[in-house]
Specification:
With 338 residues, the protein is α/β, with parallel strands linked by helices. The chain has eleven helices and nine strands. Helices cover 38% and strands 14% of the residues.
Amino acid sequence: MEIGVALGGGGVKGIAHIGVLEGLEKAGFKIRLIAGTSTGGLVGSVYAAGYSPKEILTIIENLNPSRLYSRHASDGPSLLGYTGLADTLVEVLGETLFSELKIPFACTAVDIRTTQEVYLSQGRVLDAVLATIAIPGIFPAKIWGDTELVDGGILDPVPVSLARCINPRLPVIAVALNPDRQDWHNIPQFNILPPASLPIPAPIIEGFARMRIGQSLRLFLHSMDITARMLTEMRLEVDRPEVIIRPDVHAYGMLDVVEPEELFAAGLRAAEEAEPEIRKALSWTKTVLRVLRSPHPSNNNTPKPAAASPVSPAAMNAIPAVVEVPNSPASTPPDTKK
């Protein structure tokens, strides 16, 4: 029972992805590919490197909250940094390359300078993860040559299309961290930057929040959150994954301080509830239809994977590997001459 998964973004709510992966494993499904955006890219990369869901949960639980959002002197313009998280990822992923992962994996980013979505599937995994989690304005962008890579969720909140690029014959199980549209009225308005999670004195944040400019910013960010939710639903309607799993995590904010075990449990429950639907998607009739509509290997004009500068997936049709992220921001982009 082989499947592919597309893990969406959502800040700390992405911890629920770990529970989903645990539930899929327990049900006997074999995860043969992972596509991730933002937090989904982070969780997916560590899982693809060979860590079990329980091991990933332990890594999350051992993060130091006081250092999690600290900034580094070399960080670009952003409200927060991710030095604490990056240090942990160095320990977990190290110099691992995409080609060394146990499970095929890719993640998305957006070149903010060209406004193009890019797929990250070559080079050092750590650099790709730091690009896909770089929420614009909140975390520093990943600079690479002439590109400035930020969170892929800007254009592709749940990367179903990327999963199908990796293997069009596998059913794609999408994990979205937003509720169905009819339940949006139950989503509370959040303090987008809750004091307990930030390296900024709480009185300063609370004072700013009471000011007119602070209230205006909150209204603007809440409006952007509505827009992001609608984009998620539109992409899911267009990309049509075989199954959509929606963990019940809408009560949590993007940067809230949370109990990881609670989010893990929410993801596990959602995967268990979705099991019958997934088994239906694996029926022989559904499988035959996927095979018939997938590109035939002999007629596949897809470009071969190659180290290249960021390219829009729309412009390249479906390609399993587009971008090689170098080991440091100062690296020179690889030669793209044929």
